[in-house]
């Protein structure tokens, strides 16, 4: 019974996070921080059923590159990324129960412009204003900096109401990035990697962002 109640609360919070803005989500958890713990407990339970964790692939990518690269982990959860690499990692999420995690709206981090080498979004493009998170990543990334995105595969399946991955990649390219990797080989998630262009894009308002459908979990 407790597991069913916990699962129900997780699904309710999860749907809320996908259908509100980042600022609304921040206020939601400020009103009741215990909901954040409830959400992440449910999230970890869901992830336990995945044969492979996308965060581990991103960890492997970082370990294959210089440990001097400075990383921003947007929507870090339990900060597993920071705990498993030698790099300096700025970990951001809506609530912080860990001194190493900075609580904030991901569209407005305290980082300086052009101060980060790698920006990571691992299953964290939640919220109706996800494009503002990517704009913030562009702001804080150095020229030629890397943007690593891992997202639930169904969100990029046009046959089931998901976004067209080509349209999504084009929007990020219009923001000021070049696509370097599109990996759809995993049945659970996709990997989309980009590199920031050297010149600033001043026509950002004309970008057509596709809608990313909410990832709603079924009862088990």
TrEMBL record:
Gene3D superfamilies hit by this protein: Ribosomal RNA-processing protein 8, N-terminal domain, Vaccinia Virus protein VP39
Pfam families found in the cross-reference section: Methyltransf_8
GO biological process: chromatin organization; methylation; rRNA processing
InterPro entries referenced in this protein's UniProt entry, alphabetically: RRP8, RRP8_N, SAM-dependent_MTases_sf
Keywords: Chromatin regulator, Methyltransferase, Nucleus, Repressor, rRNA processing, S-adenosyl-L-methionine, Transcription, Transcription regulation, Transferase
Source organism superkingdom: Eukaryota
Protein's recorded name: Ribosomal RNA-processing protein 8
Native species: Salix purpurea
């Amino acid at each position: 019974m407790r597991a069913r109640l916990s699962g129900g609360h997780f699904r309710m919070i999860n749907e809320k996070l996908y259908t509100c803005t980042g600022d609304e989500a921040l206020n939601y958890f400020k009103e009741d921080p215990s909901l954040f713990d409830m959400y992440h407990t449910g999230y970890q339970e869901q992830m336990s059923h995945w044969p492979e964790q996308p965060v581990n692939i991103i960890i492997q990518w970082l370990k294959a590159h210089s440990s001097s690269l400075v990383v921003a982990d947007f929507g870090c959860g339990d900060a597993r990324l920071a705990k498993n690499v030698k790099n300096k990692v700025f970990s951001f999420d809506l609530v912080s129960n860990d001194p190493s995690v900075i609580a904030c709206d991901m569209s407005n981090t305290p980082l300086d412009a052009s101060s980060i080498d790698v920006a990571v979004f691992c299953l964290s493009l939640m919220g109706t204003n996800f494009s503002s998170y990517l704009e913030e990543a562009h702001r804080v990334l150095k020229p030629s900096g890397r943007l690593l995105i891992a997202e639930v595969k169904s969100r990029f399946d046009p046959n089931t109401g998901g976004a067209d991955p080509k349209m999504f990649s084009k929007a990020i390219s219009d923001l000021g990035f070049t696509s370097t990797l599109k990996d759809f080989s995993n049945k659970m998630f996709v990997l989309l990697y980009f590199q920031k262009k050297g010149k600033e894009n001043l026509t950002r308002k004309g970008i057509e962002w596709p809608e990313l459908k909410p990832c709603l979990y079924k009862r088990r």
